[in-house]
Amino acid sequence: MNDRQTFLVTTILVLMAFAVGIYLYPSLPDPMPTHWNSAGDIDRYGSKPFTVFLMPAIGLMIWILMVFVKRFSPKGFKVESFAGTVNVIQVILIGFNTAIGIIWLLIANNPEMQIGIAIGVAIGVLSMALGNYMGRVRKNFFIGIRTPWTLASDEVWIRTHRLAAWLLMISGCVAVAGSIGGMPLIVSTALITSALMIPAIYSFFAYRNLEGFSEAP
Question: What is the reported pTM?
């Protein structure tokens, strides 16, 4: 995916998020639900104007941040060599944000909808989508598993992200299937979190085995 296509798709997604919020605004309750407990019951509310446009605003911030990543990465950590992958990740992140925002508004209008299933499936799909591209991300300061050990070694970066790719794909599949089957949202979230934490921990041991730690003088 080239830069022009990415700009067009992500701009449409951000505008869609704002448009849906504006369209549904008159029919939405005030205050609006902002948090659900592990049983799927609403336990927190927020002001309508803030809640309706929170996710679209976050999508716009992601859009701006990704422009910054492409243009202002420091020397030695430029993203041009995998720019196509960065573009796809940008679309995935903004698409997920837009989907979550729309789901949020629809559930606010229809409290009987099961938020755990919808959000669990969404984060599972996000995990699988990111896992499909994680192995193609090269060393940089903004995207990926950025630990001191991955940033210090190209080989550790590659091995860590290959592991992350597999774990994200597996945990995403489990999250989607489990959410449809009634698995609590907190379990799906824990799966995805573990798929990111395990490679971060692994990077330390990979660096120790490949590079070693020099003794202090």
Answer: 0.86
